[in-house]
Write a structure and sequence with these properties.
- The chain has 553 residues and is of the alpha+beta class.
- The protein has three domains: 165 residues, no CATH class; 158 residues, Beta Polymerase, domain 2 (2-Layer Sandwich); 209 residues, Immunoglobulin-like.
- The chain is built from 18 helices and 19 strands.
């Protein structure tokens, strides 16, 4: 087993991954930290800096808990310095320059405002309630963007976590389970010098450490390589080793049935399966039973996350992940996911592909994403749609065939404030050569003129520093049409590659999200929303997975 000596951990990793280029290429903090030269700890100056860092962070944690107590707010120290003092004979061997706090969303604004007294800033900006509320509204974020406190010797980063994983928001939407409250029920006191603070219980500490280690690799493959220009994998071995040390120290106190029940409850079985693989292949230790993890019940709303994890761990070894370029891994995982789900994307080999959205109440699509309701009304199962697409060298053709018993169209002589509408997000067109990000967002809605003729209004949408946002998107009568059908309505679009800002000859991949907005009354509220994307993410900020993928052959 691991004895907590990092030099020995270094040697084990180097033995398990024999690659002379590994140290040079894997430059991310988790792997880099454990693969640094043994001489790293010999420098007396670095030792003094590290000692100062640990002392200052420890004192800062005490100050943060005192602020929370003064505001009658519960907080929990989430990983980091507590593990250093609990698990390592020399806490300086487990360095950190950030502080992770678990906090209820309802307490974040008040606590953030109080953090100003400790000289924290929101990046380079002053902390304001408006900034914090906006950050909280992004359901893809499980923590507020880092607060920064600049010290003469070091910078301290503070992260306020409102969830351990963004997937918890989906689970709460679909089941009502609020796991932050569950974690607070399990919290335990921890004596940091002479100050009592609170940490997660031993089960949560172990599970969250392994999940965090797995998530860093997942994010590297999923989106970080694109948005952060990363080329190689990020392994966070620091929290993986934390988890193994927790298991070793508290093995006699851990009931395996409770442990696996917790993993199932939190929706982390595939996350932990990948962490198990990392531990086995990098350190030669298998902390948990793969067979039990494989049969644990999973949440439907985690379908896509779980499948990505499954493909990563079954296609690649940890050594493969270190040596392959992340963009190549990303494309291979996407391809495997598409091959495994004919209901997700089909008929894409000859320039045609078809999507079925909530075609049946028990469809795979609905199990994966659900029918999203962004108002207080119950979503209607009789509102659904089919999307068919094809393309040629000039245009992308999209047809929305929507089943909707009550079709509302705005325009001349109409009272309704809203009309049926569709958001189309087109992005990431050429990530082999062009990493400029989102390409185009389009909002289309039908209208009726004073002659009783239907037409289509369209405009750019987006929050990607796109100066075109909310200006008209150029579509003429030949490009867009709307008609009422027996079951609802039909919208047909012809989008030229030129108008989309895409060079077709260089196009290999294209990502798309669709959001169908349903209106049944004259009120300004939407009655239901169908998302062909992961609903936990703001649909103006689509992510790498969970959407339609165009692949040109």
């Amino acid at each position: 087993m691991i004895n907590g000596t990092l030099d020995q951990i270094n040697k084990v990793i180097k033995q398990n991954i024999k690659d002379e280029n590994l140290e040079k290429d894997s430059t991310f903090f988790g792997l880099q930290y454990f693969l640094t030269k043994e001489s790293n700890n010999e420098n007396s100056t670095s030792k003094l800096i590290q000692k100062h860092r640990q002392i200052e962070i420890k004192e800062e944690i005490k100050r943060l808990f005192k602020i929370a107590e003064s505001l009658d707010i519960e907080i929990i120290l989430f990983k980091g310095i507590a593990e250093a003092y609990d698990l390592y004979s020399n806490p300086n061997e487990r360095p950190s320059n950030d502080i992770d706090i678990l906090i209820r969303p309802c307490d974040v604004v008040r606590f953030s405002n109080a953090c100003k007294s400790l000289e924290y800033k929101y990046g380079e900006k002053e902390i304001t309630p408006e900034l914090i509320k906006k950050d909280l509204s992004y359901k893809s974020h499980h923590h507020i963007d880092k607060f920064l406190k600049k010290d003469k010797i070091l910078n301290i980063y503070l992260e306020l976590h409102v969830a351990v994983s963004a997937s918890w928001f989906s689970i709460q939407t679909s089941t009502g389970n609020n796991f932050i409250e569950t974690v607070f029920l399990h919290k335990k006191p921890f004596l940091l010098d002479n100050k009592t603070i609170y940490v997660c219980d031993v089960y949560d500490r172990f599970i969250f450490a392994l999940q965090h280690a797995a998530r860093h690799t997942f994010d590297s493959i999923g989106s970080n390589w694109y948005y952060s220009k990363q080329s190689f994998i990020e392994y966070n071995l620091k929290t993986l080793v934390d988890g193994l040390l927790i298991l070793e120290k508290y093995r006699e106190d851990i009931n395996e049935d409770i442990l696996y029940e917790r993993i199932e409850l939190y929706g982390f079985s595939e996350d932990i399966l990948f962490a198990n693989k990392m531990s086995k292949e990098l350190l030669g230790i298998t902390p948990l039973n793969d067979e039990i993890l494989e049969v644990i019940q999973k949440y439907d709303c985690n379908f896509w996350k779980d499948q990505i994890y499954r493909n990563i761990r079954t296609i690649y070894s940890c050594k493969d992940l270190c040596s392959k370029n992340l963009s190549d891994i990303n494309k291979e995982v996407i391809k495997k996911c598409l091959e495994n789900n004919s209901q997700y994307l089909c008929e894409y080999s000859k320039g045609n592909f078809k999507i079925l959205m909530d075609e049946k109440s028990n469809s795979l699509t609905k199990k994966r994403f659900g029918t999203i309701c962004r108002s207080a009304l119950t979503p209607k199962n009789d509102y659904n749609g089919k999307i068919a697409m094809r393309y040629d060298e000039q245009k992308l053709y999209i047809e929305f065939d929507i089943n909707d018993p009550i079709v509302m169209v705005g325009g001349a002589g109409r009272e309704n404030k809203w009309t049926e509408s569709i958001n189309i997000i087109i992005y990431n067109p050429n990530f082999d050569t062009d990493k400029s990000g989102i390409t185009t967002g389009i909002f289309v809605s039908p209208y009726i003129n004073d002659k009783g003729e239907y037409g289509i209004d369209s405009m750019y949408i987006g929050e990607w520093q796109d100066t075109r946002a909310y200006t008209p998107f150029p579509l003429n009568e030949q490009d867009a049409s709307f008609k009422i059908t027996e079951s609802g309505y039909l919208i047909s679009l012809q989008l030229s590659w030129e108008k989309l800002g895409i060079n077709y000859s260089n196009l290999n991949y294209l990502g798309m999200d669709f959001v169908l907005n349903n209106v049944d009354t004259n009120d300004s509220d939407l009655d239901a929303v169908l998302c062909w994307s992961n609903p936990t993410y703001d649909y103006y900020n689509p992510t790498t997975f969970g959407m339609v993928r165009f692949i040109k052959n």
